[in-house]
């Protein structure tokens, strides 16, 4: 594996030290081809949380912790935090579980030996596998501080890391210093639960207390990035008051209105008894009611909105300034049954709420009943989103009374909520006639549930609907037939229809297709991942030709071959509005590529054509090259907004054919901007202006 030498520079809080440089060797490229679940090689490179941990260790508080300490780094990778700690601590053990990574660690230690505070036997590099049962007895309870950065990447790794760290920590007074980047909610939850199960006290160190910029390698750190100090509960006399970064507040002024809107984003750590005072002081929030507040409570990461925090929050919703809250979003708060505590306070501002979004909050039946009570008082609610919550059928049924009372509701989003046909039937009976957007994607709805939605369409309940998303539900061919009977009649204003991953097959799309042109305003049509083959094109193609406003057509991840593509393009030339065609992941081959190339110049509105992963080879590449080589004599020229042709993951486009295609793009008429993206090529672009 090729390597490069790098230097990492950190500002030191030590008097007169200035900057600290840590030298290291790392892999030149991320080893994605050789890294597997059973043979993890991700330790050959640095990760995003590493600078967070290093900047804390370089801070005054970090150096105080390290002074005279025995330090262990777990999952060290290239070892930068450990090497930085070695400049202050008295003993250092740097570990990883990959033999090749451990060898690289040893080389990196040698590169920095001249700057180490500890030396000789006081510095060790070892191969350590995680798990309390696997941890070497020679290291048990031997260190004061355990370091980790970006080491928790799965639900199981949260528990094994903490068990290993706890086994290494001295008794008492051992500390785990963990820099954590949230990536997946289930991992966040696993870390939160593991901390509780192991009875660890967690102190969140505000990033603003030791980082001048919340960036890593020039990129903004994800929401929820944190630096945690974890101690055993019995080692903590008085649990530290959880500090956090201050609320994020921005002000929006509407030119056509005297009202102001404040966007306020807080985390669980901001929810204290003096929250209202802190929001009011120094930032212009007052009690007069002219200012509207859009409040986001974001607990992304290993955090939760506890019942105590919910009680405090309920109280502050009853008084200014939060009584003027018009938009509320809770994200990854895991409040669950705590809604019974929060709802009473929300009722005082419910009649002002226009948007309510609850994302990943573990809402079940009991919480759904509380939300239903809240909805009964939301007379001005226009947007309701309950995303990624385990509502199930019973939870969906529980909110229907409140849902039907929302007479101003425009958008309803209930995606990833485990709703089946019974819940869908109840929701369909409760649809407000004002709905313009309906998103029931990624639930457990079959053709039976679709029939209930279709009945609502027949009754003109959804006559104002412009966006319908049923993707990720196995509605089958029968579901396509149900929609085909009502689309043009029941939802005449429909602009976006998303039926990806619905298992409709060719039969379902065949039954659906005749109704598509009846939706005269249709602009976006997603039919990908439905197992559709060439036979579906016989009905779909003429339907597309009659769509006068269609801009985006997606048929990705189906089973369409060159034969079906020729059928499609014969009618596609009559769709005078189309800008995006997505056919990636089919089986078009060279014949299908030739079909697309044949009509490129005729479809002058095209902007993006995605034919990635389609087994296209040299003949297909030549077909596009020949098209681009043709002189453009007529005005208006084709593709006035430029054309991007995606041919990635077609590895047979090589050699002379590839070179010819790239040259044809470079030599194209300077009136046109063309981009072609191929496998292993970043992009071939012209610099021509229009």
List keywords for this structure.
globular, 30% helix, 17-stranded mixed sheet, 690 residues, alpha/beta, disordered C terminus, 28 strands, seven-stranded mixed sheet
Describe this structure in words.
The chain has 690 residues and is of the alpha/beta class. 30% of the residues lie in helices and 20% in strands. The chain has 21 helices and 28 strands. It has a 17-stranded mixed β-sheet, with helices on one face. Strands 5-4-3-6-7-11-8 form a 7-stranded mixed β-sheet, with helices on both faces. α8 packs parallel to α9 (339-346). The protein starts with a strand and ends in a 5-residue tail after the last strand. Residues 681-690 have low confidence and may be disordered.
Compact summary:
The chain is α/β, with parallel strands linked by helices and about 700 residues long. Helices cover about 30% and strands about 20% of the residues.
